């Protein structure tokens, strides 16, 4: 039985970049619904007592388990997404290790932000963009709908939801403005470092 994890900040903490109204719907309704659906789908099955990661890995690519996979992945993805942000007043910076890895993997911090933004803007329809660890290298990957990098044996370090429900109330169709606002103001480097 999965439950909605507490947000690591107040509902108003990400304003003005992400409104309490958006969190009310995105966290309170969308995220909650994925968890409720997952609990219903796994009740009484062999997946009932598995971890979220294990459910994702065991249902990935199985046509008859698509509903379980989608809801499990979205349960995981959203928890990851909320933790990957912090209020704009709690500034975090990449530590030395991350800074070095970013320069090695992307060239510079500017190139890293550029690549992340380009990838996020170019996700067609609903999906996610991720910073992942592939061996010793950092990479940016996109996933469609609810999928996530675990199924490709990549280690997620940070994820950005680019489904319309994550920005429509605040930015309407302006996805690029939403991405820019999150990257400039809400990115939690401490969370990324902790996932390394
Ligand atoms: Mn979402």
Can you characterise this structure?
The protein has 196 residues and is mainly alpha-helical. It has two domains: 20-83, Fe,Mn superoxide dismutase (SOD) domain (Helix Hairpins), CATH 1.10.287.990; 96-195, Iron/manganese superoxide dismutase, C-terminal domain (minor pseudopilin epsh fold, 3-Layer(bab) Sandwich). Helices cover 49% and strands 12% of the residues. The protein has helices at 20-42, 52-59, 66-83, 96-106, 109-122, 168-171, 175-185, 189-195; strands at residues 127-134, 137-144, 155-161. The protein has a three-stranded antiparallel β-sheet with strand order 2-1-3. A hairpin with a 2-residue loop joins strand 1 (127-134) and strand 2 (137-144). Helix 1 (20-42) runs antiparallel to helix 3 (66-83), helix 2 (52-59) crosses helix 3 and helix 4 packs across helix 5 (109-122). The chain is globular, with a radius of gyration of 16 Å. The model has no long low-confidence stretch (mean pLDDT 97).
């Amino acid at each position: 039985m999965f439950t909605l994890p507490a947000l690591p900040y107040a509902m108003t903490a990400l304003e003005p970049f992400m409104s309490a109204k958006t969190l009310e719907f995105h966290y309170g309704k969308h995220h909650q619904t994925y968890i409720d659906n997952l609990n219903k789908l796994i009740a009484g099955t062999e997946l009932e007592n598995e971890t979220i990661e294990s459910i994702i890995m065991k249902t990935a690519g199985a046509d008859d388990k698509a509903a379980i996979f989608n809801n499990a992945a979205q349960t995981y993805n959203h928890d990851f997404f909320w933790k990957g942000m912090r209020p704009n007043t709690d500034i975090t910076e990449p530590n030395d290790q991350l800074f070095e890895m970013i320069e090695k993997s992307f060239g510079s911090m500017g190139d890293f932000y550029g690549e992340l933004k380009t990838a996020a803007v170019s996700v067609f329809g609903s999906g996610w963009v991720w910073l992942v660890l592939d061996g010793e290298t950092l990479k940016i990957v996109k996933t469609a709908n609810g999928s996530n990098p675990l199924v490709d044996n990549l280690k997620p370090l940070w994820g950005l939801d680019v489904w319309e429900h994550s920005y429509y109330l605040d930015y309407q169709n302006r996805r690029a403005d939403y991405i820019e606002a999150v990257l400039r103001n809400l990115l939690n480097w401490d969370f990324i470092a902790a996932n390394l």
